[in-house]
Amino acid sequence: MDRAPFGFSSDSDQLPVVGPFLRPLLAELTAFRRDLHAHPELSTREVRTTGRIADRLTAAGLTPHFFEGTGLYVDIGHGPIATALRADIDALPVQDETGLPWASTSRGVCHACGHDMHTTVMVGVALVLADLNRSSPLAGTVRIIFQPAEETMPGGALSCIEQGVLDGVPRIFALHCDPRIDVGQIGTRIGAITSASDTVRIELTGRGGHTSRPHLTEDLVFALAEIAVGVPAVLSRRIDVRSAVSVVWGQIHAGAAPNAIPATGFMSGTMRCLDGDAWLAAGELLDDVVSQVAAPFGVAVDLEHVRGVPPVVNTEVETAMIEAAARAELGEDAVVLTPQSMGGEDFAWFLQEVPGSMFRLGTRTRGGETFDLHRGDYVIDEESLAVGVRVMAATALRAVAEAAQHPPVVAPVAPNRLVERPAAKPRSAWAAEATGR
Questions:
Q1: Element holding 268 (H helix, E strand)
Q2: Quick one: pLDDT at residue 245?
Q3: Do the Cβ atoms of 383 and 183 come closer than 8 Å?
């Protein structure tokens, strides 16, 4: 193994293989992840989680920097920042149904999205890079971000950005567990890998009355039904179908008796889109489309459309870095093309500021059951922990090498920026908000 200072060349032959540095840490990291899984914390309440991360980083001789409330970041290396890495640390309001010895001890809360794995992977990366940096100094700095409140809208990333975590950062990487990909592989994609995700709530009011005389009322239930069907249909004809605009309703509430037309009712759902420009266009059309569909029924319409997160759009250069790192660590078959997801992810806000890429970490046992995210029975194959650390640490080393050879220019606007980011919500508002991205 070449022991020259890391970062003098982008040639992969000059970079260390991460596996040998990780091996002595695996048992400890597995226990760390199980501890996080047993003690999940909801968005903005990740106090114990933040403390556990900070304690382990401090024990390794690193200096954590805390965000307001919860979450932290740590810098490893020397000189200008070469890259940032991000993990999300919050859990979901879902009951743990795994039956594992390290199942959640918090009733109604569990890591059903794999954030305990994301966090542990990044702790492992920090320990590996700290070890490498002690033996041969990194020719650049790697910033590792442990972000709170990803499972809220519009996401805890905004608060971290407002606190300056991206100052001087030229690129950023992240990972997300994927129970559809076998352990030992990762999924990548250039371009949109996740969807924009907004929430839509529509409240209707009108004259109620008897179901025998709907002509003397504004038939509100019928209007709700027409909006539920008509709005998605109209948008699909007004927006390019290749953009995959999807409006799906999760709630419709009206009435209390079968023979009474109610005076009020509401419906709510999400609007998702894989194309950023189409996302903006659909949002501008939504008010007119809802009003036009509702107009024949004479009901009053109150529309609340809350922008959530943009799509996560992976850049080509950064995705290539991940793929090269994965193949160097795991072999040529380690990288698969991942399908686009209609789920939302607030890592998108980081990519509105700097270029970067998110990859999918395979967590399915080969030949085993295929789970889904946000399910209480989601079981992760723990062999994926080593895979995540190796790929992410090797990606960071490539970014350091590239930055040392070709110092990056931190662009004032990222290539994927669609909109100015909104202000972060007050933490009290986050804590009270139901999750549901």
A1: strand 264-273
A2: 92
A3: yes
Report d(CA 121, CA 78) in Å as an integer. Answer: 22
**In angstroms, what CA-CA distances link 261 with 206, 215, 222, 265, 291?**
10, 11, 9, 10, 21
Which strand (E) or helix (H) includes residue 88? strand 81-88
Residue 15 has pLDDT above 90, yes or no: no
How far from the centroid of its chain's Cα atoms is residue 250's Cα?
21
Phi, psi dihedrals of residue 77, rounded to the nearest 5°: 120, -160
Q: What's the CA angle centered on 60, arms 57 and 61, to 5 degrees?
A: 95
Of the candidates 12, 22, 160, 10, the residue with the CA atom closest to the CA atom of residue 82: 10
For 194, the token pair is 């996740």
Are the CB atoms for 395 and 322 separated by under 8 Å?
yes
The two most distant CA atoms of the chain are separated, in Å, by: 86
User: pLDDT, tens digit, for every residue of 376-404?
Assistant: 999 999 999 999 999 999 999 999 999 99
Residues 6+ apart with CB under 8 A from 367: none
pTM value? 0.90
Q: For 143, phi and psi rounded to 5 degrees?
A: -100, 125
Amino acid found at 178: D
Whole-Å CA distances, 435 to 49, 153, 254, 303: 19, 7, 23, 20
Cis peptide before 154 (omega within 30 of 0): yes
Span 36-79, pLDDT tens digits: 999 999 999 999 999 999 999 999 999 999 999 999 999 999 99
